[in-house]
Amino acid sequence: MMKLTQAQFEKFSILVKERLGIHLNESKREMVQSKVFKLLTKEGLTCPDEYYKILIKDRSTLWSTFVDEITIHKTNFFREDNHFNFIKEKLDFILKNNPEILKNSEIKVWSSACSTGDEAYTIAMVLKEYIPPGINIKILATDVSSLVIQEAQEAEYLLDQGDLINPYFLNKYFKKFDNIYKVSDTIKSLVTFRTFNLMEPFPFKNKFDIIFCRNVMIYFDFPTQEELIKKFYNTLATGGLLFIGHSESLTQKQYKFDYIQPTIYMRKD
Fold it and tell me: CA-CA distance, 130 to 169, in Å (whole number)?
């Protein structure tokens, strides 16, 4: 098996850290090595240094392919379903602490690392089912990988045992073609997909009422996590909620979030 030199591994690791925020330590070396040689061979190249130089200059197709390979896309419908149960069961709490939702007749949600769209469409189904009538639902779903965003927009899925969709939702919000489940147009219309890198400055003019950023920060070092959390705080409306992954937590007082329950936090001014 071809191997990266220490210097080559460090160059790719620094590139990923600088552009994506992902911290690749020595334990990830074999994975990075495998991905790099797979991709450079696909491009008809033989030298990792040559491939690296192309990535440095490229911000389109080759870079997108590299990003897609190096990032994790594991996701399912209703993954970590306690978050969706919270929205369902605590709507009064959510609306009480964020009265602007009722005032504006609109709830704005950001699925900030949406992968193939399972999370965003799950949010859409839950809100469509349980939010009071007359409230407009707007969901922005972003991911750093343009390839998974394309998959998400197609909204066609081969469901597996990790997808915890109850029969009611499956029958109401999906159409089955052979073994493929297609999300209904009603749900698709609630979600807008965009390619976006969380390391970039946030361009949003309006505040979000709910932000999902689950199982992302585990790949970042502490300073990167801290900076991202501050940006999320500034992007949330007062009374807005941040949902993070089960292996993640906010423990630093400087984050200013109120703890609601494990993995759920609220911005309180």
Answer: 12
Residue 75 maps to a domain: no
Q: Is 265 strand, coil or helix?
A: strand
- Which pLDDT does position 162 carry in this prediction? 66
Give the structural domain span for 19: 6-70
- 221 part of a folded domain: yes
Whether 65 is covered by a domain: the verdict is yes
pLDDT for 234 equals 95
Radius of gyration for the chain, computed over Cα atoms and rounded to the nearest angstrom: 20
Q: Identify the CATH number of the domain in which residue 159 sits.
A: 3.40.50.150
Instruction: Split the chain (269 residues) into runs of 10 and give each run's mean pLDDT.
Output: 87 93 90 92 90 85 87 88 97 96 98 97 98 97 94 92 84 93 97 96 96 94 92 96 92 76 92
Q: 195 and 111 in contact (C-beta within 8 Å)? A: no
What's the token pair of residue 171? Answer: 């029958």
Domains held by the chain: number: 2
Separation in Å, CA 127 to CA 44, 76, 77, 122, 224 = 48, 18, 14, 9, 31
